[in-house]
Amino acid sequence: MKNKLAALLSSAVIIALSACTENPTAETKLTKPATESKKLVKTQQQNPLLAEYLGPYGGVPAFDKMDLADLKPALEKGMALNLAEIDVIVNNPEPANFQNTIVALEKTGSDLSRVFRYWGIWSSNMNCPEFRDIQKEMVPKIAAFNSSITGNEKLFTKVKAVYQSKELKTLTSEEQRVIWLNYNSFARNGATLKGEAKARYAAINQEVAGLQTKFANNILADEENYELFLSDDQLSGLSESLISAAANAAAGLGKEGQYAITNSRSSMDPFLTYSDERELREKVWKTYYNRANNGDEFDNNELIKKILTLRDERVALLGYDNYSQWRLADRMAKNPENAMDLMKKVWPAAIARVDEEVADMQAIATADGADFKIAPWDYRYYAEKVRKDKYALDSDEVKQYLQLDKLREAMFYVAGRLFNFDFTPVPEGSVSVFHEDVNVWEVKDKTSGEHIGLWYLDPFGRKGKRSGAWATTYRSHTTFDGKKTVLSSNNSNFVKGSQGQPTLISWDDAETYFHEFGHALHFLSATVAYPTSHSGVRDYTEFQSQLLERWLTTDEVINNYLVHYKTGEPIPADLVAKIKKAATFNEGFKTTEYMASAIMDLLYHTTDPTLIEPQAFEKEQLTALGMPEEVVMRHRSTQFGHVFSGEGYSSGYYGYMWAEVLTSDAAEAFTEAPGGFYDKDVSKKLVDHLFSIRNAMDPADAYRLFRGRDAKVEALMRDRGFPFTE
Fold this sequence. Notes:
The chain has helices at residues 2-12, 34-46, 71-90, 98-106, 110-125, 129-150, 153-163, 173-188, 195-224, 240-252, 265-274, 278-289, 301-317, 323-328, 336-367, 376-391, 395-399, 404-419, 507-524, 538-548, 555-561, 573-581, 587-604, 614-625, 641-644, 655-671, 680-691, 699-707, 713-720, and strands at residues 227-230, 259-262, 421-425, 439-445, 451-460, 470-475, 486-494. With 726 residues, the protein is of the alpha+beta class. The longest helix is centred in the middle third of the chain and has 32 residues, at 336-367.
């Protein structure tokens, strides 16, 4: 149960980056007292946020009926319905068994789950001050509701009884794992505590939930409240497509005739790469990297201290020395020492490569007459000059062949070859959406025509939408209580092209596009029976999405979908050769900025929080690591939403690197196969062992079924062009 509730609460605090589970409606036998039942059902019928999904494709969310006025009462009634379902399980006089306890739990919470689907849209895609007021009030209540279930001693006793029963060995492997996941989740989240300790644990959860929500909203406020407007004489270096997108952004903000650089990565990154105006680059860089660190009402430094202190106190109640010990106990890494060991294997090579990259950049800057040392706001700009000098590769030239719509077609092609999926647009008006930018496709099996699910795409940035890119589901595949098909969603923040012009994106953005689609395919390919089987293992769930990035560089995609946005001509072979030759270019920067964040995450959660002043701690620890002064953390402490806006990635940001080891090793399985990245046998093993089973099997065992062995870090070092000793 906690697995499902945690996923819901994670959405509530704006950090839902991977699968969110959905629970089928409870069986009729899970009835409430007559009066209460009638009251709740009536409310459910009247409130569209509680209502079952209706319409085609097994039912779809009623996004056209979303009204913030319905949200709070829907949450309150959804929680009441859920607790009534729990009461039925707890008060069942029959001895606990798999059906009346675990399966019954799997069936609870469907009404509340639907409410949280809408909550997730408001929090991530359509945020506004009115929602934040509701969020501020309700998140602590949701945390208390969560604790009331995980702290329910009678419920835990029943779950424990099933876990320790003779029945366990008679069940399927997935059923056994579902039992273990439920038991482990309860045990790890305060169910074993008594008296004052249990009460304090629940109180901490409430307080942390509120602080995490405020942390996320402070970042969003600093992103919303800043735009840099440029005039015609400040556009030097910017490409035609970037100028057009900036003009379109300014027009959307009521500044016709000007050009807007917003405080988002999708806008900041290309500006820092191409703008010749060093003072403006510095201004944009400082504004972006100082989000929530300006000593004002949106400053997050004190929140970090409070969150760390409370997390540490909470896990101490469970007998752990630090938060990371608790967090990693049921992940592939098992403990923070193993996670940090991986970081230490790669870090020296990464910062050594940065030194090489900076030397190359400084040489070009000095030759151009610059009288300054390379600063962080210069890195992307001069890296691009090095790219042109060393590889004769112009990123803006590449961008002309990276049309958003064509890349989407490429992703559909890959999904067809590997997963046998076919994507077709749904008939106009047949499925409601929450914004005019959102489009929907039906996913079918190419051979049988069987309906798999729907795929929603919300690709463009806008006010009220959180930064970055993410994937989620509005319904996940299950079969235990009648087959439920998938409602999957990808969300990005690309800067929309001008009217009538295609949206062009960078190579890095194209990789991110494929990455998030990898999450969607992970949802869509599921064959598991139970909702809990969708619960993620954070240092594994990024693996599938990272792996899909590799298909962007396959010949089939390059030759058929990378075409010039004006001429329609395929990308030239010599340009492709340059792209592949430069595959490890700037890897020092990319690896170092990521790893600095991952290491700091582990350090924050293994250090006595009373010793931490975030800005001083960040500086001291990075200095001790030998962090190059020209690079900063990808997510500086005050804007590290993965870690402090929720607990999905807290003490788990290393998981991207852990997953990257798996990715590099798995990619070599394809390169070694006769059919390359489209080899039928390896593709089948990929789907069967790494995508379809979700968390119905221990991830380490699943990977061994695919590869025949554990993954090797050497594959990662080869990928990044780092030296290593075999």
